[in-house]
Amino acid sequence: MIKQICNCENCQHQLCARRVPIFSTMDSGEQNRIVSLIIRRLYTKGELIILEGSNLEGLIIINRGQVKVFRDTLEGREQILYIFSEGDFFGEKNLFRNEQATYSVEALEDTNICMIKKSDFQKFLREYPDIGIKIMEELCSRLERLENTIESMGVKNVESRVGSVLFEFAERYGKEHQRGIMIELPLSREGIANYIGLARETVSRKMNLLQDEGIIEMIGNKSVSGNCSVYFKR
Amino acid sequence: MIKQICNCENCQHQLCARRVPIFSTMDSGEQNRIVSLIIRRLYTKGELIILEGSNLEGLIIINRGQVKVFRDTLEGREQILYIFSEGDFFGEKNLFRNEQATYSVEALEDTNICMIKKSDFQKFLREYPDIGIKIMEELCSRLERLENTIESMGVKNVESRVGSVLFEFAERYGKEHQRGIMIELPLSREGIANYIGLARETVSRKMNLLQDEGIIEMIGNKSVSGNCSVYFKR
DNA sequence: CGTTCGATTGATGTCAGTCAACCCGAGTGG
DNA sequence: CCACTCGGGTTGACTGACATCAATCGAACG
């Protein structure tokens, strides 16, 4: 069996700088400079990476794993804002302003992160405008995703909202399969509910409905170790 | 009486480059270079500036006036995403990617805009990384606003959603007044409804409720020439 | 085998959307 | 000056969809 990921410190560092889209335009000498500045951390599933209201020390990039970004609302509900995985970054809001985090971040699975201190990163940003452009592109696509979310939340048809979120997961994590696109859901029913602002029971019901209509097919409904999977049919 | 705004072409150009936060870090020589590249246009109230799906030629900056950014949904509703006014910019999404506009933009009042062609702007961006940083900051605060919107849409308490949007307007357009913060609403009831995803009647009812509770006070309810105003009480 | 936790299902209540009527101020035109 | 229309705002009654509450199920795990 081939060992797919080398676990030594150096390779992980390399991976981080090389795999991440925002550094992709730099040559390897420049990437090495970044590598030398990176601080690594490992979080286990369920661990809190950032607590809403705390201070952020720098830009955080996910090297391996998956996290949810969320807020706990006054009403006691949890609103999930983003699901981030390998290559995604966060903490960018606080690179310039000195404000507290506006959200909490929790590891959905065991997760390796790389951190670049605010001051270091600012230096790079001025030296390599292309990094800034990459970040802008990413921020723009996040804006677009949030705009889509708001549109679909404003338009109220709950069933299509559930469909949309499954479709979003299919695009990001789906694998081609003869029966359709196979998705390992990153979230439980409750998680999905918190992502799109519904009650968990409603998500349950609507997913059954989508299955009855032949749009999706659920497999291993119950938690087989992680969440259930879904086929998005063609 | 002092003429507050000079209407000659040059001054308007100057204003545009000087007033806009994203160019604020440049010295006047650099600003003049930008000025020379700007294309100006005037739109009258109600006029469409951008149609969803059309091609964008560059970055657009609002010099004077106010616009709404929205999408027409399949269900026949209009979802307003942003209200932009003097100094705000849009079209940034298409500076790098060559995609069609994902929203329409309409002038809410007579509006002067300045446009910088995509290619010109990209050059500036690479020359002055600070511009990029300013844009990133602005994109981040838009993200934050959308995140707030999503949280409040997900959390469903309709009355506080109406309150939040009034508070947002108060922060952006409010003037101090002995009775509270005076806001000239940029949107009609229907507009507000389309902004936060409610029915116009519901907005009406909830605003009355907020008034009964002594949180706001409405003046000149009916359209006296533009929209009604509101005091946000202390 | 019992416990736990997520998912499901059913019954019920509530709140916002919808439909319809009406109000009111502003134009308009005779 | 008055009658008319027009458009936004308001109000009331009704309805339906989703939240809520409660019970049950079923897989995983000790």
Brief description of this entry?
The structure is a homodimer of 234-residue chains. Chain A has 234 residues and is an alpha+beta fold.
Strand content of chain A: 25-35%
Give the total of beta strands of chain A.
12
Would you tell me the overall average pLDDT of chain A? 87
Number of helical elements of chain A: 7
Q: Could you say which structural class the secondary elements and strand pairing of chain A correspond to?
A: alpha+beta
Quick one: which chains have the greatest interface? A-B, 40 and 41 residues
Looking at the structure, the CATH topology of the largest domain in chain A is Jelly Rolls
What would you say this structure looks like, in words?
The structure is a homodimer of 234-residue chains. By secondary structure, chain A is of the alpha+beta class. Chain A has 2 domains: 16-154, Jelly Rolls; 156-232, Winged helix-like DNA-binding domain superfamily/Winged helix DNA-binding domain (Arc Repressor Mutant, subunit A, Orthogonal Bundle). The first copy, chain A, is built from 7 helices and 12 strands. Chain A has helices at residues 9-19, 28-37, 118-127, 129-154, 158-173, 189-196, 200-212; strands at 39-43, 48-50, 58-64, 66-72, 78-85, 89-90, 104-107, 111-117, 175-177, 180-184, 216-219, 229-232. In chain A, the strands form 3 sheets. A 4-stranded antiparallel beta sheet of chain A has the order 1-8-3-6. Chain A has a 4-stranded antiparallel beta sheet with strand order 2-7-4-5. A 4-stranded antiparallel beta sheet of chain A has the order 9-10-12-11. In chain A, helix 1 (9-19) packs across helix 2 (28-37), helix 3 packs across helix 4 and helix 5 (158-173) crosses helix 7. The longest helix of chain A has 26 residues, at 129-154. The interface between A and B is large, with 40 and 41 residues. Chain A binds a DNA duplex (30 and 30 nucleotides) through residues 156, 158, 188-190, 198-202, 204-205, 208, 221-225, 227-228.
